[in-house]
Amino acid sequence: MIEARELTKRYGDTVAVDGVDFSVQKGEVVGFLGPNAAGKTTTMRMLTGFIPPTNGTATIADYDIFENPLEARRRIGYLPETPPLYPEMTVSSYLAFIARIKDIPRRARREHIDRAVERCGLTSVRRRVIGTLSKGFRQRVGLAQAIVHEPPVLILDEPTVGLDPLQIHEIRSLIRDLAAPGKGDTQQTVILSTHILAEVEAICRRVILINQGRKVVDAPIEDLTRNGQSLEELFVRETASDAVAKREASDGGAREATP
Amino acid sequence: MKHVANIAGRELRSLFVSPVAYGVLSLFSVLAGTFFILNVAWFNDMLIRMQQFQAFDQLARMNLNDQLIGEFYGSMSVVLLFLIPGITMGLFASEKSNGTDELLLTSPLTAWDIVLGKLLGGGLFVAILVGIVGLFPGLLFFYGDPELGRTLTGLLGLLLVGWVYVAIGAFASSVTRSQIIAFLISLVMLLVVLLLPAVADLGVATGAPWIGEFFRYLSANAHFEQLMHGLVETGDLAYFAVMIVTFALLTKASVESSRWR
Ligand SMILES: Nc1ncnc2c1ncn2[C@@H]1O[C@H](COP(=O)(O)OP(=O)(O)O)[C@@H](O)[C@H]1O
Ligand SMILES: [Mg+2]
């Protein structure tokens, strides 16, 4: 469902994302893991078409983000790092606007909105003005915005950041439901970024670890933890500065030549 | 471009749930009423004086359209010049500071959907303001006999001037994420447009008449006056169209380039 090919983003001299390749199959829930400033947000912004890659490209459900941007975007639900909310709107008028701009046919809008409201636990605050909601509720409105058109691909940038443990638990079980839905619901492919290891272990089957813009690990969690090491040990080992130096010494020579 | 109405509708709804819209509408109505009363008083005063001095040929040239409605529309165009930057400053800048630009630009919308939707939203709000202006000359039809045609073409002129201001303000809002900076940029640009005739006169003085003509063409006022005189000519209408389209294109380029930063 998601193919990233050699995705690269440079900001002047800094390389935020450096030749990242991966592919995500239908129904997978992939944890996009990395320390702060690793390039997670930048990668997601390229996948969703918010910023163009300096190099490389990606396809969403076989639609290239350059050649068929509208078709690709129609198939994505995206929760940015800060939920994109209009504070002066009510939850229901906000979702009605989202339903329109996401091309949900007029007749199906009500039903889609009702389902998103219910799934995200927003029933009690439907008529409330978004600006008056707590952070937890605002995050859920952000999530409702991402799923209302029931897109085949969900891209969630740190979906549980700043929530309390109960809210985190609820959001995580919602994400699990989206990928393994009951009868009649569309199965969704999810890629979510986080720097919380427990989050990955709780909801993802597979991890992509990036550090300083490069993909360093891409494997199912059970393979990574088979020999008894914990994700935390792996994370520390792969992102510690001497690991980076070692990798650059061995395979980074060619890349270093073209900064 | 099927989403233009969705973007415009959301813009207007957001405007009307905030106190800002009502503040602007009340302030504008009060200003319109004040200017209208001042203009009526001045007009009466002139009539009385001309009668006192028995200046009958001048008296014969006084009419409601030129000396009252036209002056009133002129004053209101200056009020719009200061008010519209306040209306348009948030069009794009607030999306950027809210983070909702990330929503719009990752939804299946084209840049034209967004730009035209914003222009339509701002344009409709200004149309309401111009509608308020139109109520006042309406009163004169009960007490006098102004020409309906010129009263309406003048109002059309005011609307078109307002829309040019909206297009300029929208562009200013698209180049920054700060509403205050957007306000200042558009105010400066509008003042430049207002002062172009003075620049044009300078151009004439320096002996390059075509520069003068060019600046005079770029200023909204000359075209607005034609409409106030009841002259609806394609050249003047084309001016408004050219200005609006130019700034719409610039705004679209700016919205698209924000992806490329
Ligand atoms: N607009 C930008 N301009 C310049 N540098 C940027 C910009 N956005 C991100 N970066 C840089 O790119 C790197 C990756 O950032 P980001 O993708 O936000 O990381 P993460 O989401 O993993 O924390 C950081 O070093 C950040 O400073
Ligand atoms: Mg981030």
Briefly, what is this?
The complex is a heterodimer of chains A (259) and B (261). By secondary structure, chain A is α/β, with parallel strands linked by helices. Chain A has 11 helices and 10 strands.
Count of folded domains of chain A? 2
What is the share of helical residues of chain B?
Answer: over 70%
Helical content band of chain A: 25-40%
Structural class of chain B: mainly alpha
Q: Categorize the overall geometry of chain B.
A: globular
Instruction: Determine the strand fraction of chain B and express it as a percent band.
Output: under 5%
Q: Major β-sheet of chain B, in short?
A: none
**DSSP strand content of chain A:** 15-25%
List descriptors:
heterodimer; A: 259 residues; alpha/beta; Rossmann fold; 2 domains; six-stranded mixed sheet; four-stranded antiparallel sheet; 11 helices; 10 strands; 40% helix; 24% strand; disordered C terminus; B: 261 residues; mainly alpha; 12 helices; globular; binds adenosine-5'-diphosphate; binds magnesium ion
Task: Chart the SSEs and their pairings.
The complex is a heterodimer of chains A (259) and B (261).
Chain A: E1 2-11, E2 14-24, E3 29-33, H1 40-47, E4 55-60, E5 63-64, H2 69-74, E6 76-79, H3 91-101, H4 106-119, H5 135-147, E7 153-157, H6 165-179, E8 189-194, H7 197-203, E9 206-211, E10 214-220, H8 221-224, H9 231-239, H10 241-251, H11 253-257
Helix pairs in contact in A: 3-4, 4-5
Chain B: H1 4-17, H2 19-52, H3 56-61, H4 64-88, H5 90-98, H6 101-105, H7 111-143, H8 148-174, H9 179-205, H10 209-218, H11 220-228, H12 234-259
Helix pairs in contact in B: 1-7, 2-4, 2-7, 4-7, 4-8, 4-9, 7-8, 7-12, 8-9, 8-11, 8-12, 9-10, 11-12
